[in-house]
Amino acid sequence: MTAGSTIARRYQQVQFDTADRGRLLMLVFEGGLEFLARAEHSLAAHNVAEFGRNLGRAQAVIAELMHTLDHEAGGEIARNLERLYQFMLDHLVEANLQKSGPHVTQVARLLQTIAGAYRTIFAQRAQVVAA
Description:
Structural class: mainly alpha
CATH superfamily: Flagellar protein FliS
Number of domains: 1
Radius of gyration: 16 Å
Strand content: under 5%
CATH architecture: Up-down Bundle
Shape: globular
Number of strands: 0
Helix content: over 70%
Largest sheet: none
């Protein structure tokens, strides 16, 4: 490991350790999207082992998002998000079985849409706090 990569990892860890809950959630989404992009790239390069590893990492991220939903506070929104996350997990299983890039792309679009909605909510919240 080079000194530069060690410094970058430390910086990322400090960012993670000091982030608020909204920023942490966005980091989780970004990680999931990155793993999906890597999976698509690996599949295009015919690297099935790497495709599987990145798909598994993306599935772990989505499962974590699903398991951290607060159904009591979130009500119907939490139930709908849980159904979407479950769909994504099932779709990624299909992607793995069929070695299907379109399945991965569809999940990435859904995850990006949800991340964008949260990003908007957090930006609006920041504007209210700043006012």
